[in-house]
Design goal:
The protein is α+β, with helices and mostly antiparallel strands. It contains six helices and three strands. It has a single domain (about 5-145), classed as Winged helix-like DNA-binding domain superfamily/Winged helix DNA-binding domain (Arc Repressor Mutant, subunit A, Orthogonal Bundle), CATH 1.10.10.10. A hairpin with a 2-residue loop joins β2 (about 80-85) and β3. The relative contact order is 0.12.
């Protein structure tokens, strides 16, 4: 097992890097139509079969509290980017779906956002380091989920 001080230092470094990168990406977010958090919800929906997911499952994929996600979803529904319906398997829950209009907006923003991400990440790490970072983060996530 690794030395506790090394583990804590690694955690601190990872956490601080994530905060700094997210602040920078939020400052450079390429859309006035949707926020970075709204984009995150739309991104997660775009990866689901049929662009649909139960609200409680969506909450597991985003970094917002459940009440914040619910309010954000309601705003996106009112703007026509998402649909919301009662979960037929559990009448207390809701199914959230990305509309075609929402998907089209997501794709437009995603193209510009990928450029911003590329500029931020490739300025600090080369391709081999980025692949190593991906593998390490995947291992950390898998360990946290088990």
């Amino acid at each position: 097992m690794a030395d506790r001080a090394v583990v804590v230092a690694a955690w601190e470094s990872l956490f601080r890097a994530q905060v700094a990168i997210m602040r920078s990406l939020a400052a450079d977010f390429p859309s006035k139509e949707i926020s970075l958090n709204e984009y995150d919800v739309m991104f997660n929906l775009s990866r689901q079969p049929g662009w649909r997911i139960r609200l409680r499952d969506l909450n597991k994929h985003v970094l917002l509290s459940q009440p914040s996600v619910s309010r954000l979803v309601d705003r996106l529904v009112s703007r026509g980017y998402l649909e919301k319906e009662i979960d037929p398997a559990d009448g207390r829950g809701a199914i959230i779906g990305l509309t075609q209009s929402g998907y089209d907006l997501f794709r437009r923003v995603a193209r510009d956002h990928m450029v911003t991400i590329t500029n931020h990440m490739s300025g600090s790490l080369d391709e081999a380091e980025l692949k190593q970072l991906t593998a390490l983060c995947d291992r950390l996530r898998e360990g946290a989920e088990s």
